[in-house]
Each structure stands twice: as structure tokens, then as C-alpha cells.
Amino acid sequence: MKRTKLYIFITSLIIIVLAALFFNLRKKKPEETIVAIERPIKEAKENIKEDSLIAFTDFVRDFNSHKAENIDRYIDPELGMMLFFHDGPYPILMISSTIKDEIDRFSQDIFENINSTDSPEYLGDFEFFKTGFFIRQNDGEFSLKDFDNTYTSHPESFFKKNRQLETSCNFSAVGISKGQTNTYHFYFKLEGNKLTLLGLSTDSVSDDMFANPKAAFIPFDNKGDIENYFQKQKLFRDKANNAYIDFDKKKDYLLRFSGRTVYI
């Protein structure tokens, strides 16, 4: 009899303990397991082989020679290349198989260190965050129609005829002049270690007209200050460009400020 009571007591105790554990587990929320997911960092560096980098290095060296024959060897004579520049205030868009006639427009040396991880960032006052020859892969981003055609007025057939320049382009680059006043934009076809120049444009930095901190500055507070100044000052000389404006003479002058043309 005692054994039976002991058996019943032990069995009941086990059942109570198991029941308590069961209900306790149900009430307790499962702990959240935080899994650290390592997200792959997107590499900015382009997948460019070493011999291809050498091709760009050779090109920059040849460009800095400022000899047309050294640059022309990168141009396909049958395909030609796009050239875009400003002749004074006039935007010129053209196709040529040689750079000979326009070589003087690209006379500034550019930085020779090849950079395939960054993009040029202009800080202002003729200073870039980093300097170099910035190259990157190009996937359909080169279009002749992106360049100002208002002056040259090429017809639609011009763009269709030179479509292969756009479709062949797989690399682009930005070269910064060593004076950090100009940028050169290059468009290439790269096959193995063979580099073909498809396009070249040049542009001044955005604050080229007023970035020089050494240039004389005349402060004007209002329109009256300007009018009073011009009453006394009639002659303005630009010694660097051998030019002048004389407001005492009745002449028409064409001035260009940040892309705007003003007639006086």
C-alpha cells in the first residue's frame, strides 16, 4: 500500500513538473536570432587588365607630346573621331580622321597617373579633390547628340552615318590639365591592349571666368555704383589676349559670360 502511494506521488510529481515546463516554454517568446549578413562592398575599381592599363598610360604620354602624329595613330582613319570644342563663343561638333588641324586646342598637359577607382571632383578655384586620368567602363553612354549642335547644324544623316562611333565605345576617360583649369573628355574602344580614340571634347572648369584669387576685383553694391564707374572708366584692356573695349567709340561688342552671349 505504501509502495502504491509512493508510486502515485512520484508519478504525479513528474506530471506536474513536466506540465510546468511545458506551459513555461509556451509563454516564453523565442529569442530572436540575429544573423550578421555581410553585404559585399561594390568595388569601384573597374575590371581592367594590366596590359590595358598600360595602353592608357601610353596614350596619355602620347597626348602630352602634343604631336598630331602620336595621337593620330589611335584614330581609325575609316571611322574617324568626334571632336567637340568652342571656337570663341561657337560650339563646334565635327568628325575628323586627324587631330592635326586642331592640335593647338588641346595644348595643355594632363596628369598622367591612371585612376580607375574614382571620379574627378572639382572643388573650385582651380582645384580638384584628386588629379589624374580617370578611366571607367562605358556602356552606351556616349552619344553625339549629347553635344551642342546648334552652330554646326548637322542633319540627322550625320548622326546616323557616325553611329558606329557610339556603339564601339566601351571606355571613357576624363583628363585634368595640370593647371586644373580644363578637362578633356575622351571616348575609346578598347580591345585587348589596342586602344582606339573615338571622341575628344574639352571644357573649362565652371568658374574659369572668376576663379583666379589674384585677379583684381571691383566691388559693386548696386546699379548706381556700376553706372558711376562706367562714367569714369571707358577703356578696358585685356593684355593676355591683346584685346580691348573702348566705350567712347561707337562699336558693337560681343561678350560671353558663362554660356550667355551679350551684345553691346
Question: What secondary-structure arrangement, pairings included, does this model have?
Answer:
Elements (H helix, E strand, L loop, with lengths): L1 H26 L22 H14 L4 H5 L8 E7 L2 E7 L17 E2 L17 E5 L18 H6 L1 H6 L2 E6 L5 E10 L2 E11 L18 H10 L2 E4 L4 E4 L7 E4 L2 E4 L1
Parallel strand pairs: 1-7, 3-4
Antiparallel strand pairs: 1-2, 4-5, 5-6, 6-7, 8-9, 10-11
Describe the structure.
With 264 residues, the chain is of the alpha+beta class. It folds into 2 domains: 50-204, Nuclear Transport Factor 2, Chain: A; 223-263, no CATH class. 25% of the residues lie in helices and 24% in strands. The chain is built from 6 helices and 11 strands. The protein has a 7-stranded mixed β-sheet with strand order 2-1-7-6-5-4-3. It has a two-stranded antiparallel ribbon with strand order 8-9. A two-stranded antiparallel sheet has the order 10-11. A hairpin with a 5-residue loop joins β5 and β6 (182-191). The chain crosses the membrane at residues 6-25. Keywords: Membrane, Transmembrane, Transmembrane helix.
Radius of gyration: 35 Å
Ends: how far apart? 126 Å
Average pLDDT confidence is 77
CATH class category name of the largest domain: Alpha Beta
Number of strands: 11
How do the SSEs run, as a string of H and E? HHHEEEEHHEEEHEEEE
Note the main sheet: 7 strands, mixed
**What is the CATH architecture term of the largest domain?**
Roll
Strand order of the largest sheet: 2-1-7-6-5-4-3
CATH topology of the largest domain: Nuclear Transport Factor 2, Chain: A
Q: How many structural domains can be distinguished in the coordinates?
A: 2
Q: Give the overall silhouette.
A: extended
Percentage of residues assigned to helices: 25-40%
Helix count, DSSP H or I runs of 4 or more residues: 6
Instruction: Kindly name the structural category.
Output: alpha+beta
Strand content range? 15-25%
Give the uncertain stretches in residue-range form: 28-46
